Known about the structure:
Layout: E1 5-14, E2 21-31, E3 36-41, H1 47-55, E4 62-67, E5 70-71, E6 79-82, H2 94-105, H3 111-124, H4 140-153, E7 158-162, H5 170-187, E8 190-195, H6 198-204, E9 207-211, E10 223-224, H7 233-236, H8 240-254, E11 266-269, E12 285-286, E13 289-290, E14 303-306
Parallel strand pairs: 3-8, 3-9, 6-7, 7-8
Antiparallel strand pairs: 1-2, 1-4, 4-5, 9-10, 11-14, 12-13
Helix pairs in contact: 2-3, 2-4, 3-4
Amino acid sequence: MSALISLNNVSKNYGVGYQATEVLHKIKLDIHEGEFVAIVGYSGSGKTTLISLIAGLIAPSSGKVLYKDKLVCEPEPGRALVFQNYSLLPWMTVWENISLAVNQVFSKWSKSKRHEHIRYYLDMVNLGNATHKRPSELSGGMRQRVALARALAMEPSVLLMDEPLGALDALTRGNLQDEIADIWSKNKKTVILITNDVDESILLADRVIPLSRGPKASLGPSIPVKLPRPRNRKTLNKHSDFKQLRKHIVNYLIGEGGSQSKSSKRKTFKLPNILPENLNDPARYVFGKRQPKRSPNVNIEPLEVEL
Length: 307
């Protein structure tokens, strides 16, 4: 069976001539229909560039991006993208933000059918009571729910998520992870998740692919996640397979995939011998000038840091 999405030796450069930087180097990736794939890597490694290539927002410098065996040249509703920063129109209500996408994609539908369609996805993300609110009246988690509902309402073949939960607090992030997992289990859409959270990738995905440090970032081995669904984060941390998966991914990221860090420089600093002061002690001033306290009996170890 042919892949729904294929990246064949895809590279992406930014800049011109000798100043050009190769961000991604010969990326090879096949995504099959119904898969939930997570790509995990460091910030700045090129994850957003990769998802933008798949979405058709930018073109590769070399190689090909294929969707249903056709060359990806521009964005289309079949590949809906959920951004990290929500990308909602601030002057529109929740309903209007979603209807904007639905009216564009399903312009031939009747008004009542579009209305029913929007209501269905608002209820799916538990925003049925917030239809008339504007983004400024919503929490970060609610805004991301709107963005997710808007993408799902387009009924794409592939849902692309570019660190959609990265700006949220831990509690809201956990709740939305559960909602995404529940939504995926119901409709089994093909999902590509970009994240820098290893635990999140294991919790949600069928397989996890680490992305090495940039520049010239490349994909590491595809690591299948065979943990049974639904997955419970409370019990997952105690699961031996989960610990092995996490160790495998982290070792790649900080080892082979993060090999540039091995060549980083280290520098040693000599710390000053200065003791904490009592601000209420008048004796800390000598002739009106502040004098630091020092101890002749303290042996201060030098501090070595990685640059």
